[in-house]
Amino acid sequence: MVTIQEARRSLEQHFGEHPPAISGHLHIGSEWYEDADDVLPTWGSREYLVDGHVQFNRNDNLAIFIAKRTGEVRREAYILNLDKIDAMTPVDAPDA
Questions:
Q1: Which residues span the domain enclosing 59?
Q2: pLDDT digits (tens, 9 = 90+) for 54-89
Q3: Three-class SS of residue 23?
Q4: Total domain count for the chain?
Q5: DSSP per-residue string spanning 28-96
């Protein structure tokens, strides 16, 4: 099983290879969500997540899941995964 710190590193590597199209500075939050199979990171612009400037809110349909067994990063449609996301529970993902 992949630890939260390993999942964070996988996400950072993914963003290094595939920079997200967001306004502002990329920020990976410290509260993620999980179910038996995946973790769902909180991410977006620092200006929105930390500073609260709503004009920097992401308005996309992107959910990024990280498989707990392999660390694989998957990009999926958020709206098609609403039931999965709603059933996930919060988990702390502090910077390592």
A1: 4-92
A2: 999 998 999 999 999 999 999 999 999 999 999 999
A3: coil
A4: 1
A5: E-SEEEE-SSEEE--EEEHHHHTT--GGG---S-EEEEEETTT--EEEEESGGGHHHHHH-EEEE----
